[in-house]
Specification:
By secondary structure, this protein is of the alpha+beta class. The chain has two domains: about 1-95, Ribosomal Protein S8, Chain: A, domain 1, CATH 3.30.1370; about 100-194, no CATH class. It contains eight helices and four strands, in the order H-E-H-E-H-E-E-H-H-H-H-H. It has a four-stranded mixed beta sheet with strand order 1-2-4-3, sandwiched between helices. Helix 2 (about 25-40) links the parallel strand 1 and strand 2 (about 45-50). Helix 6 crosses helix 7. The radius of gyration is 18 Å and the shape is elongated. The N and C termini lie far apart (about 45 Å).
Length: about 190
């Protein structure tokens, strides 16, 4: 009965079921991170992550649940999730953070990004509307900080935001459209925050 309520509340697009595939702890953490980053960019209000309780693990010791919980803590520090709570003994309800939190999260030593574009190369390949969305977001973010909006500062901020957003956008043919939409949503969030 509760699974019917969960499907109604979260929908399939906002539910990650790790229990049925029985992944390793590392694979579960990677899948959870990719899913939560994508749901953050999609502005999902809340998502359900089903880990299971570990009953099918060797010796009945949970592997997936603690790995996902550690990933959630890391993702909160990184500005991807704003919080989570236990929904059942085998699942979490996770609240994705606003997109602007990606830019506000402090840099950590040893953080490795999936995609670190070379200086200017990634931005040069964007279409005009995506470039414009990133430019407006960069200018607005710099203004909010009271920083100069010279071209050098704007370009550096565009590069930083591009890198942060690309970590949350899955690869695919519509990646640039998703990037443009995420930059536009982040700009709206900055405007709403004032």
């Amino acid at each position: 009965m509760s699974s019917a309520f969960d499907e109604l509340r979260f929908g399939r697009e906002n539910t990650l079921d790790l229990r049925s595939s029985l992944p390793t702890g590392a694979a579960a953490a990677q899948r959870a991170e990719a899913f939560l980053r994508e749901r953050q960019v999609a502005s999902a209000p809340a998502v359900l992550v089903i880990t299971g309780r570990g009953n099918q693990s060797a010796g009945g010791i949970a592997i997936v649940r603690p790995a996902v919980e550690a990933a959630l803590a890391r993702l909160r520090r990184g500005g991807v999730v704003s919080g989570w709570q236990e929904h059942t003994p085998g699942s979490f309800v996770v609240t994705p953070a606003p997109i602007r939190a990606l830019f506000e999260a402090p840099k950590r030593h040893g953080t490795v990004t999936e995609e670190t574009p070379t200086e200017g190369a990634a931005l040069a390949g964007l279409d005009a509307s995506t470039d414009q969305a990133l430019r407006l977001l960069a200018i607005r973010a710099l203004q909010a900080l009271g920083a100069p909006t010279d071209e050098m500062f704007v370009h550096d901020e565009m590069q930083r935001q591009y890198t942060a957003l690309c970590q949350s956008i899955p690869p695919g043919s519509d990646r640039e459209a998703l990037l443009r939409a995420a930059a536009t949503r982040a700009l709206d969030e900055l405007d709403d925050a004032e």
